[in-house]
């Protein structure tokens, strides 16, 4: 068993709503070993996104402890937090809303490299941008496109490239395929799996579709109203959930989700390139 890269102990997230205090995450604890994928599932409002943001030190009102590679994230100074942010990144649900509409893809990636001082010239940034676009299955010529000129799957690949280009080894994916067409979802899931296998990426996968979790996750925790109600190996939890809430989630998983997981698992290869089957997927000129 690999040593934990992420350790979360008794994490609590509290928001102030008017005069009231609302606890969105209530004493959650878990760990994620290097190179593994932990799935966090639950319905909307269960605290999944609050948990994810707290892990990355993006929330106020957080109690408990988050340790990354043995370091207490809350104790990091500014330089330490910047280094942590290079190693731990998030991929959001909305691929279009995650990108600056005024920046071409190449400029968006180059900006990240500049902020983190990972490219000392425009030529070096362009070279790195091309390499990372290829890593996520896009032709480097897509660097000349604006986000609105890409399909949803291509935008999500760009978001992955942006996270990876700073050297991230831990990625939180907050429902990364729920906003995509079903025909593209399996391709993105295969890409996530490939990155885990070839680059040792550690994943915290947020979602509500247990069929997707069955394909991606090694372990699963089920959140209800900010509390963990079930946890264990993904194969066990998803095949024989013991908590009534987990059983309800499994029963509610749409047939299309199950078909998606079968398609992703049964692919002949983990090829990364999207087929140019739609107008927006035409190769860049």
């Amino acid at each position: 068993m690999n040593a934990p890269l992420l350790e979360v102990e008794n994490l609590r997230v509290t928001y102030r709503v008017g005069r009231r205090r609302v606890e969105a995450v209530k004493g959650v604890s878990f760990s994620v070993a290097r190179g593994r994928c932990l799935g966090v599932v639950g319905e909307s409002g269960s605290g999944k996104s609050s948990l994810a943001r707290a892990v990355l030190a993006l929330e106020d009102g957080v109690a408990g402890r988050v340790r990354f590679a043995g370091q207490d994230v809350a104790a990091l100074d500014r330089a330490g937090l910047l280094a942590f942010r290079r190693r731990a990144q998030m991929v959001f649900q909305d691929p279009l809303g995650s990108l600056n509409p005024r920046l071409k893809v190449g400029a968006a990636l180059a900006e990240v490299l500049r902020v983190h001082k990972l490219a000392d010239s425009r030529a070096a940034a362009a070279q790195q941008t091309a390499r990372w676009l290829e890593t996520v299955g896009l032709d480097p010529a897509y660097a000349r496109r604006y986000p609105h000129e890409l399909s949803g799957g291509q935008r999500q690949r760009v978001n992955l490239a942006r996270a990876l280009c700073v050297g991230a080894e831990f990625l939180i994916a907050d429902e990364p395929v729920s906003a995509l067409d079903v025909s593209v979802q399996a391709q993105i899931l295969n890409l996530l799996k490939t990155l885990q296998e070839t680059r040792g990426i550690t994943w915290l996968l947020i979602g509500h579709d247990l069929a997707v979790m069955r394909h991606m996750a090694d372990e699963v925790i089920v959140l209800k109203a900010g509390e963990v109600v079930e946890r264990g190996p993904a194969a066990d939890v998803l095949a024989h959930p013991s908590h009534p809430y987990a059983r309800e989630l499994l029963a509610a998983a749409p047939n299309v989700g199950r078909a998606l997981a079968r398609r992703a698992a049964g692919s002949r290869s983990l090829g990364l390139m999207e087929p140019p089957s739609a107008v927006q997927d035409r190769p860049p000129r």
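The mean pLDDT is 87. The CA atoms of residues 35 and 202 lie 4 Å apart.
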